[in-house]
Amino acid sequence: MNKAFRCKRSITQTFKSFKGHCKSLSKTRRFIPTATSPDDEPLQIPATNSLSKTIKRKSVQVQSQLLELGQENLEERMQSSVAMPANPPYRLSTLIAELVPQGRSALLFELVRSSPSMTCDQLAALAKQYVALGADALVVRIDSEDTPEGLKDLWTVSRAVKVPVLARDYLIHPLQVVEIKESGAAGALGVIGQVNGRGTAVLSSFAAALGLDAPVEVINLLEVEGLAKAGVVFYGINISVGISIAIPGFSADLAHGILGHLPFGAISLVGVRSLEEARKAKLSGADSLLIKSEMIAQHQDSLHAMSMQLQYLVTGDD
């Protein structure tokens, strides 16, 4: 009884922590990330409205869902989800734990509909192709800007392949994590330190309670230090935030600077958009690489060659 009570109390506290969070996000006007170079010198990053607009849009969508669901139904759904955590047959963290001692980084291929007319079944067929090419895991983009049926895409792909499948979205509320878990995914990308602020560790812990791998995206060592104290062990770099930063070489320098200072035993996932970025991330010690859809699109006519080069990069010492 005490354990059940503590579980319910914990979920209620999680809900309250995020109750006003979406409202504050909807008022966000600008998003100006700050970071340090590998030598801890401040990096001047140009202001961009790209991410803030995305989060504002996402906030409106989530608030609409919350109003329709109601607080009582929301808490019941969250409690039910924690009471029956996911037990995916293929987990990214388990895979990484097997590969790292071999000196190999895991390769995650990002999957997204090439057009609105593309179907879930066609996406599943593409997922199988990526696995055949050497993908160790897949990341399905489920944001409404990428697909009209994000959760259905996730559900279909998760059942089509025998590798870890993660969702990629912009996560600002536990309800989104519940939906991802219910869609059969093994994890979620989209917990961003610069977006979720003080709620980052709470959202990360909630995802873990649901049985999901959920890397927290960071952009500087200060964030890493704070999250490490909160018990976060899985970190993402240059996954979503990096998209809005257009500084030549920034992503590689950022990854190098952070990877060398992650807490002992931490797991890392670095997003890359070129073979050179993949090489640098591997040399800097990345446990896993997210091969972004932009990179895959650039090599559309030579996917096999790209995959072979990536396989060499993640297994060689260079």
Textual characterization of the structure:
With 318 residues, the chain is an alpha/beta fold. The chain has one domain (92-315): Alpha-Beta Barrel (TIM Barrel). The protein has 15 helices and eleven strands. The protein has helices spanning 2-19, 21-26, 50-69, 71-83, 92-99, 120-133, 150-158, 174-182, 193-196, 200-209, 221-229, 250-259, 275-283, 293-298, 303-315; strands at 35-36, 42-43, 106-111, 137-141, 165-168, 187-189, 191-192, 216-217, 234-237, 267-272, 288-291. The strands form two sheets. Strands 6-5-4-3-11-10-9-8-7 form a nine-stranded parallel beta sheet. Helix 1 packs across helix 4 (71-83), helix 6 crosses helix 7 (150-158) and helix 13 (275-283) runs parallel beside helix 15 (303-315). The longest helix is centred in the first third of the chain and has 20 residues, at 50-69. The chain starts with a helix and ends with a helix. The model is unreliable at 1-9 and 18-47 (pLDDT under 50). It comes from Chlamydomonas eustigma. It catalyses: 1-(2-carboxyphenylamino)-1-deoxy-D-ribulose 5-phosphate + H(+) = (1S,2R)-1-C-(indol-3-yl)glycerol 3-phosphate + CO2 + H2O. This is indole-3-glycerol-phosphate synthase. Keywords: Amino-acid biosynthesis, Aromatic amino acid biosynthesis, Decarboxylase, Lyase, Tryptophan biosynthesis. Its EC number is 4.1.1.48.
